[in-house]
Design goal:
Helix 1 packs across helix 10, helix 4 packs parallel to helix 5 and helix 8 crosses helix 11. This protein has twelve helices and 15 strands. It is of the alpha/beta class. Helix content is 35%, strand content 23%.
């Protein structure tokens, strides 16, 4: 088939470190023809950096002139719907950064419009491609874990507020640590568990440190930019409007549950972990350790999983290389999507229910969100 013409909307860190390098890895499948950014200099610099022939300040002008087959939407969360709907209206398939939307209603409208136009919309839920989750899903699918009825995860940055963009502004991002970090872990956990039906969500948020601390030394890598950023917006602590810490419980229809906590700033040690309990075995991630029994004895099993088996392991954001390849293969050859619309709708419903729960201080049933 002919190469896909690709355009990228917004030229921030995730575009320059993930989307554009990923597309350029597959020259036989696609060509990045243009980028756009409301900051003209940022758009021009990005195009020159990667040898992209065209750049625009006006996104609609780019879509009208370039007529891309596939668009990456990399704007802040609050503009995902607007840019996705615009791209679809110009006949493009869309890869949208997570979360696709901040409400179930918006996400449903986006997917319905894509279906109406016979186009594909896919969320960049890339954590599924991490080796530990691939392994855990394999253990789920082959029956090693049995029925998984409990999961918990922690993704904690002790001091890691992203300060190079508009992450901290509610009008741009909608939420803080949950939208930035927790959304990945929620999606990965549900995927490993076989995407069980979700009944309800209970959550709490807090924001004490980011607005009040001054002159605390922080690491750019620990704030989510391990390979740095090319351009930064001015960051002012007094403009911090979202949560720095989020914790909650998700109740499942099969009787199971998920507990989680995630943060940009909290007085707890940094942590990245997930555990799942099944009727035959449990599993600890990222260690990939199985907790089970052997005859009369309790047994811990540590399979040898070799790092060189992980594709694009040397890249900063390896999952983007794989998920965008999956999307292009789906568009060109009908390959099954790894991240399906109904799964993303569930995650979006959880996000909306979480914030409602935190605000109303009560558990929120997902049926209240999705009807």
């Amino acid at each position: 088939m002919e190469k896909l013409k690709v355009a990228v909307i917004s030229c921030g860190m995730i575009s320059n470190k993930a989307h554009i390098p990923a597309y350029l890895t597959y020259p036989e499948k696609c060509e990045v023809v243009a980028v756009s950014d409301m900051n003209e200099e940022t758009a021009r610099a990005t195009a020159e950096r990667w040898g992209i022939p065209h750049w625009y300040k006006d996104t609609e002008e780019m879509l009208a002139k370039e007529k891309p087959d596939l668009v990456s939407v990399c704007v802040p969360n609050g503009f995902h719907k607007e840019m996705t709907m615009l791209s679809l209206s110009y006949g493009a398939h869309v890869a949208c950064e997570k979360p696709v939307a901040l409400t179930y209603k918006d996400a449903k409208e986006m997917y319905d419009e894509a279906a109406r136009l016979d186009k594909t919309l896919m969320a960049c839920q890339v954590l599924r491609y991490n080796p530990e989750y691939q392994f855990a899903r394999e253990m789920h699918d082959n029956g090693t874990l049995g029925d998984v009825y409990y999961s918990e995860f922690s993704l904690i940055r002790r001091r890691g507020v992203p300060k190079w963009g508009a992450f901290h502004k509610k009008s741009a991002s909608g939420g803080g640590a949950l939208c930035d970090l927790g959304v990945h872990m929620i999606d990965a956990a549900l995927w490993v568990m076989g995407n069980p039906e979700v009944l309800s969500v209970s959550g709490t948020t807090s924001s004490y440190l980011a607005k009040n601390e001054k002159d605390i030394v922080m690491s750019l890598a620990e704030s989510g930019a391990p390979d740095g950023v090319f351009t930064r917006q001015e960051y002012k602590p007094e403009e911090f409007e979202v949560e720095e810490f989020a914790a909650g419980t998700i109740r499942l229809a099969n009787g199971g549950s998920m507990n989680f906590k995630t943060s940009w700033a909290v007085n707890l040690p940094p942590e990245y972990s997930m555990s799942l309990a099944g009727t035959k075995a449990g599993i600890l991630l990222p260690e990939m350790k199985l907790l089970t029994t052997m005859g009369r004895y309790q047994a811990d099993i540590e399979p040898r999983v070799f790092a060189e088996e992980a594709p694009f392991a040397s890249e900063v954001f390896p999952g983007h290389f794989q998920i965008l390849d999956n999307l292009m293969n789906h568009i060109q050859n009908g390959e099954e999507l790894v991240v399906k619309p109904e799964q993303t709708l569930t995650v979006t419903g959880i996000i909306e229910a979480f914030y409602r729960s935190a605000e109303e201080k009560k558990e929120i049933n997902l049926c209240e969100i999705s009807r």
